[in-house]
Write a structure and sequence with these properties.
The protein is of the alpha/beta class and 336 residues long. The protein is built from 15 helices and eight strands. It has an eight-stranded mixed sheet with strand order 3-2-1-4-5-6-7-8, with helices on both faces. Helix 8 packs parallel to helix 11 and helix 8 (184-206) crosses helix 14. The longest helix is centred in the middle third of the chain and has 23 residues, at 184-206.
Length: 336
Amino acid sequence: MSKPVKAAVMGTGSWGTAFGMVLADAGCEVTLWARRAGLADAVNSTRTNPDYLPGVELPRNLRATTDAAEATRDADFTVLAVPSQTLRANLADWTPLLAPGTVLVSLMKGVELGSAMRMSEVIEDVAKVGPDRIAVVTGPNLAREIAARMPAAAVVACTDEAVAQRLQAHSHTPYFRPYTNTDVVGCELGGAVKNVIGLAVGIADGMGLGDNAKGSLITRGLAETTRLGMALGADPLTFSGLAGLGDLVATCSSPLSRNHTFGTNLGKGMTLQETIAVTKQTAEGVKSCESVLDLARRHGVDMPITETVVGIVHEGKPPVVALKELMSRSAKPERR
């Protein structure tokens, strides 16, 4: 009898916990790593994550610990589910503990401030592993819906298709359907930039600008995401798939989206600090909008919506002024 596949999930936020549920439901033995002992105890004693997914019963083959060495021991997959900007420091601590040959799986959708690195690049840089041991899970995956076992599809991306297929097999459940892709660059950029566009759409919704504005921002946001992706060597078709359009639509349409909700509060007139104060979880686009714009400028790519979001979020530009500037840009053909 073959031994069960083991997975460590480093992080007990809503998406890390939900994906841990997926892996457990697919038959893996899952250990969540929690920073706080109280949360780990709650997971083990009540079978729930009261802080991030209250009321959701967790599978019996999922447990939690505060001991990173215990979590990662003999893990076939080590899933990284921490805020993007904390990955480098956390992974530096965890790298000596990683099981030999473990596949490092990124759930994070961001670009590192300062270096403008994608998350897989940070993993490769810190853990000193090749791209064939790094996988990315992305797509229209709102954690609360997946935790409720509502139907969803996702993309499992790795430059080594065999590795992607392994993770696909061990995360495929009746409600979670993963597809494989070898375009890691495109999949990561789709996930990172959609958070920024989600902020823009949220701001427009908060200002009451209507559905035409929403449709326009989603479409033009996808266009600038694709431009950046092509400049970095991504396959443009990736952006019409689950990692691109699928994730973008879910983020820009759902009240469950942290970035959309954050933007809505800004559009209604709340200050950045007021919005941060009422936001319980990380809205990745708030910090990543700066690093995405940095990445675009390094490659000479025009991203006006991203630039507008940075102006509103980090430079204090009033949304009404930013909207006027965006709408008054010089006219041009659509496909340019």
